Amino acid sequence: MSRRGALRLGALAAPALAVPVALTGCGAGTGGVRGGVLRVAQAEDPSTLDPHKQGDMITMNVLINIFDTLTARDARGRLAPRLALSWSARSRTTWRFKLRRGVRFHNGEPCDAAAVKFSIERILDPATRSPIVELRYVKRVSVVDAHTVDIHTSQHDPILPAKLSLFGGVVVPPKHIAKAGDEDFARHPVGTGPFRFTSWRRDRELTMRRNTGHFHGTPDVEELVFTPLPNPASALAALQSGEVDLVTGLTPDAARQLSGYGGVELENHPGTRTAYLNLDTQVGPLRDRRVRQALNHAVDVPLLIDAVLDGKAREVPAMIPHGTFGFDASLRPYRRSLRTARRLLADAGHPDGFSTTLTASNTDAQVAEAISGLLARVGIRARVELLDPGTFSSRLTSKNRHALGPLYLAASSVWTLDGSSMLQSIVRGDRRQSRWKSERADHLIDAEELSVSPQERTKAFSALQQLMLDEAPFVPLYQQDIILARTTRAQWTPIVNGALAMESAEVSR
Hints:
Elements: H1 3-9, E1 37-42, H2 57-63, E2 71-73, E3 79-81, E4 84-91, E5 94-99, H3 113-124, E6 138-145, E7 148-153, H4 160-163, H5 174-180, H6 182-187, E8 195-201, E9 205-210, E10 223-228, H7 232-241, E11 246-247, H8 252-258, E12 264-269, E13 274-279, H9 289-298, H10 301-307, E14 313-315, H11 338-347, E15 354-361, H12 365-376, E16 380-387, H13 389-396, E17 407-412, H14 419-423, H15 439-450, H16 454-471, E18 474-480, E19 482-487, E20 490-491, E21 506-507
Parallel strand pairs: 1-10, 1-11, 15-16, 15-17
Antiparallel strand pairs: 2-3, 4-5, 5-7, 6-7, 8-9, 9-10, 11-19, 12-19, 13-17, 13-18, 14-18, 20-21
Helix pairs in contact: 1-10, 1-12, 9-11, 15-16
């Protein structure tokens, strides 16, 4: 099927962006004098500047430049030291972290073992109301000496160091927070990161200046500015005029609109952000496994990637993306067959299909409409309901597991590069986004989350993915490339989890 035909299935055509006929360069290129201002556009503004009271990548992308974490990912995606120089498992329930000496927060307060203890226990404190879920097995933190901490867990957590590379690993200044209070800290953050917070005008811009005393060295960029530009057309117009230097989070369609214009570089890099359909297996037709399997046969993911995503994605056979721990290369995705899908629907008592609702964020409108069109070919009439990103996120994380309807389109960044990060909230029956009851799945989640042996974890992941293929509580879709547009004056290469750590960026004056 042609690209145009596939888009017609979703009852849409690719919208033209308001881009002028020609674009001109807006810098001297990387051969110029470096050290100027780098302006970065994201789709949204941060929700807060308190790193412990947020759980979304848009916000984390800003805060990772102001704060440091205990561990980090290097340019090749490997786990690397950050505030912690080394770590080791002292027992099944104790991880020891040796901290970097001499690190200070931007206000001069020492970043030591007491600060690490305070930070992790602040996340765990119910009064903080932190949405960060990765530290569910952590009970407490004990200070061994000024530069050594032990993190105690209720059960063995084999990937705790990886979980401390972003959200759960941010270290904050205890004395400053005690003096300023949470509300002031959320407006004027103080970290140890490569950039110091300067100012924030909500929905306009957030600025920070480089930290000349940072332990990783002084960033090339003097001033870093984040600007929320939710409309791709306005973001690209800002890029053309020189108001921004780097546009992140581009959709393939937006990138395609800009292809071929001078002065602008388009890049796509391998990413781990993985999209899927979550099916409500507890109500309506989707209670029947045959119906869920029919959806998997009907949604032609390779066609979706080619027609809607411009080939800038890779099919995921069973939820866990390529390049992460737990991926099983021997597993194969569903064979796309309209005949098989119709037969399964008829066997389940729906020979004429049925009507349902597919909910998505309006940022994923094109994909959702295309999926609706693909399902219509087998008689599944899925009306697309689009929500603004904030409403979608609040419903997704609410206690009402049915708040997003029978089917919803979602994605996970899989930022730990471990399959547990992909599945932790959506599979086990007692987790907040799970809509599937399976004792076997619960057992396998426990095995992969808690096993000491990497081999046992790998075995559990493979069995779990096969079970998910058989029972079909999800429709696995694809992992999307990281797509950037930048002027020739800016240089930066993202890491695979997509976090916007800009300390390695370069910009010409």
